[in-house]
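stage 2 :: seqdesign
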């Protein structure tokens, strides 16, 4: 694996903001969902900021709720627009995408291209979090590493990540491509179509929201993740 890899961080579900111009479209039930796992990924942004600061890694995030538009979905995906907006006019959806979706995604693409022009490769880690229980099923991990095993660079990075976590005696359960598949529709999949595997490796790092429910666990998780990224042998930007 080439040595010249830099870390780039992102957080597609960093908040649950709905711009005022669209707030009236939400019914009362949907408004109550904004601060739940349906509206954002609790804890993901704060952790990403800590890693970004320590590793001097660029961080890109959007605090627009996925109940408006989900920057981690392709535009044709049935869940890209929130339930209150899926049946709105094409013109409204185009405007939402123009204002919030495309600028965010393009900012990440531009950053990756800048690194490539400098002759370095990009390890992209998108921070997400997942609800401990979904549809009555308790999730069976606290950390998930989502990637495409068909891309050799991502498989090699995944092996290195798992070995690093084992070496530091990471105290929680870790699974590959859980609770979702890394090759499914998402921002990293979009970026894989643009960049070669020898230049770009895209991961979604999924944290169980249970780890953010008390201060002690959240603090310990931060310490563990700072140690983890410091041990990967990445080049500082």
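stage 2 :: out
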């Amino acid at each position: 694996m080439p040595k010249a890899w830099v870390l780039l961080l992102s957080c597609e579900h960093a908040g649950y903001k709905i711009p005022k111009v669209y707030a009236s479209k939400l019914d009362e039930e949907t408004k109550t969902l904004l601060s739940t796992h349906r509206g954002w990924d609790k804890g993901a942004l704060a952790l990403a900021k800590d890693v970004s600061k320590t590793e001097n890694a660029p961080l890109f995030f959007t605090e627009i709720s996925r109940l408006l538009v989900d920057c981690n979905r392709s535009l044709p995906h049935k869940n890209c627009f929130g339930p209150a907006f899926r049946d709105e006019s094409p013109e409204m959806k185009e405007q939402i995408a123009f204002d919030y979706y495309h600028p965010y995604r393009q900012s990440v693409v531009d950053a990756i291209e800048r690194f490539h022009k400098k002759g370095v490769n990009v390890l992209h880690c998108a921070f997400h979090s997942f609800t401990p229980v979904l549809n009555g099923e308790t999730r069976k991990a606290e950390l998930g590493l989502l990637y495409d095993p068909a891309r050799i660079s991502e498989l090699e990075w995944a092996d290195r990540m798992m070995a690093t976590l084992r070496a530091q005696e990471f105290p929680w359960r870790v699974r590959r491509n859980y609770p979702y598949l890394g090759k499914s529709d998402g921002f990293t999949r979009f970026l894989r179509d643009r960049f070669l595997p020898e230049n770009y490796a895209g991961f979604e790092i999924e944290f169980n929201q249970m780890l953010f429910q008390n201060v002690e666990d959240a603090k310990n998780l931060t310490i563990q993740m700072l140690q983890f990224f410091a041990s990967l042998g990445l080049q500082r930007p």
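stage 3 :: structure notes
- The chain has a mean pLDDT of 97.
- The two ends are 18 Å apart (CA to CA).
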